[in-house]
Amino acid sequence: MEAADGEAARAILEPGVGLDFDLVICDLHMPRLSGRDFYEWLARARPDAALKLVFATGDVPSQEFAEFLRATGRPLLPKPFELSELARVAEQVRTPARAA
User: Fold this and answer.
1) What CATH number has the domain bearing residue 58?
2) Tens digit of pLDDT for each residue in 15-64?
3) How many structural domains is the chain composed of?
């Protein structure tokens, strides 16, 4: 599934909707709800889905975002990316979910 913006992504992942995903790729710069705000909401509302989140960006991450990324422990997928890099990050996210 694809969401047009952060608010649409939040609607898809609302706890009562009942959808589950193996991987959630979240752009840092989304309209209507930033990637950071989306993650903070997701960590509260759906901690299970927050563990499956990967941030993506085409920008050079700022110092502030680098600190946020370290604090969350979520991987970063720089854009543009090769499918092999996506597969590596997906496996990285999937492996801890199996062990939990």
Assistant:
1) 3.40.50.2300
2) 988 788 999 999 988 889 998 999 999 999 999 999 999 999 887 667 88
3) 1
